[in-house]
Design brief:
The complex is a heterodimer of chains A (120) and B (251). Chain A is mainly alpha-helical and 120 residues long. Chain A is built from four helices and two strands, in the order ααααββ. Chain A has two domains: 54 residues, no CATH class; 56 residues, no CATH class. Helix content of chain B is 45%, strand content 16%. The chains are: A mainly alpha (120), B alpha/beta (251). Chains A and B meet through α1 of A and α9 and β9 of B. Magnesium ion binds next to α1 of chain B. Chain B: This is AAA domain-containing protein.
Chain lengths: 120, 251
């Protein structure tokens, strides 16, 4: 509990969870008072904004199975687990702790120069 | 050790649900907890699927400690039950000197990490004794038009108790219960509570039929529906009793 210099509790401080609850509630109420067509539009825009973070990747089913098992084990979403894996991976590369060159094999393809062989 | 009184002079605001869920949750985190029922209704025993009993009256009438009469429910969780004999106890206490210290005395040498009092919805001698014994008062409240007033009333009772006794009880927090995000009233009252009590307002506990179902089944929420809304909140807004317990750990 934050206290001001005079010992009184600082009423401007708010629990972050409560703050999020209030702002989500305000948004919901503001949307509800919009005319129907505008409400649809804001909902569509929000969905579109959420979609911008969505990516389509072609991933080996064996990897997906392991990922989904691990996500279930830790009781987290697959998206969050994947994000964590990518952050750890990108950090490791940036720090020079990980070198991916040994995993690359040259191929004859008009678009890519290499293919990855992760079973190495 | 922290002694917490869960109180609100109004009934049906979620006091017992809060007391039982917090006690059970803290015990599941490895803490040793004693939950003391001060309400003759005996809802604590019901909620835990335990036979009713008059432990509270037995302890105090025989000059024993609460720890002496407590029964163990599961690892880390002991309870002191209450039943109709608590009414008899209250009238016995009414004529006694220093009656507001009965719970302080009954906790002599207690070694639990947490002691939690589930108060009855009235200002009686046991309610006063709980606020004298407690380090923190936690007030569950519904989010209706009387909620701020109800909380103010409890806080007023606390400050008058602090004036006539040497109670060091502080307001630990206010828990908005029965949170329903579909209603404008809920939102308005939450805004109201926050502007009056600031950081004292804990994360909300969503309205959730699992509370009633779990109570009827004699199971705690952690046993009955460990992923339910009242415990973990919504996917986009983690709140509920888990978030409340996180705040209590920081008291
Ligand atoms: N968050 C909630 N959502 C829905 N029902 C609840 C919730 N909290 C408590 N209840 C139910 O409401 C009733 C009153 O709750 P209770 O905890 O006994 O209140 P009190 O002890 O303040 O009288 C009980 O039937 C309980 O199961
Ligand atoms: Mg009750």
């Amino acid at each position: 509990m934050k206290r001001k210099d005079n010992g009184l509790i600082d009423l401007t401080a708010i629990d972050p969870v409560v703050e999020a609850t209030l702002s989500q509630g305000r948004r919901r109420i503001a949307e509800r008072s919009l005319p129907k067509d505008e409400r649809k539009k804001t909902i569509r825009e929000r969905e579109k904004a959420a979609k911008r973070n969505r990516v389509m990747l072609d991933i080996d089913p064996a990897i997906m199975r392991d990922l989904s098992k691990l996500a279930e084990h830790y009781e987290i979403s697959q998206s969050q687990l994947t994000s964590l894996a990518l952050v750890l991976f990108l950090n490791a590369i940036e720090k020079g702790e990980l070198d991916i060159l040994p995993y690359l094999k040259p191929i004859n393809n008009p678009r890519y120069s290499y293919v990855v062989n992760w079973n190495k | 050790m922290a002694i917490i009184a869960i109180a609100n002079q109004k009934g049906g605001v979620g006091k017992t649900t809060t007391a039982v869920t917090i006690a059970d949750g803290l015990a599941r985190l490895g803490k040793s907890v004693m939950l003391v029922d001060l309400d003759p209704q005996g809802n604590v025993a019901d909620s835990l699927g335990v036979d009713p009993g008059g432990d509270l009256n037995r302890a105090i009438s025989n000059n024993m400690t609460l720890q002496d009469v407590a029964i163990n429910v599961h690892d880390g969780l002991d309870i002191v039950r209450s039943d109709k004999t608590t009414v008899v106890l209250k009238s016995k206490l009414a004529g006694m000197d220093f009656r507001e210290y009965v719970l302080v005395n009954a906790m002599d040498d207690d070694n639990h990490d947490y002691v939690i009092f589930d108060c009855a919805p009235s200002i009686d001698v046991l309610h006063t004794a709980a606020l004298v014994a407690a380090d923190y008062l936690i007030v569950p409240t519904r989010l209706d038009q009387f909620s701020v007033k109800g909380v103010v009333e409890v806080l007023r009772t606390l400050s008058s108790i602090r004036r006539f006794s040497n109670s060091g009880c502080e307001v630990g927090g206010i828990i908005p219960t029965f949170y329903d995000r579909q209603t404008v009233e809920t939102q308005e009252q939450l805004e109201n509570l926050v502007s009056t009590f600031g950081e004292l307002v804990y994360p909300v506990v969503p309205v959730d039929t699992n509370c009633r179902k779990a109570h009827r089944a004699g199971k705690t929420l952690f046993e009955f529906a460990p992923k339910c809304r009242a415990l973990v909140g919504y996917p986009e807004l983690p709140c509920g009793y888990m978030a409340v317990i996180n705040r209590i750990l920081k008291l």
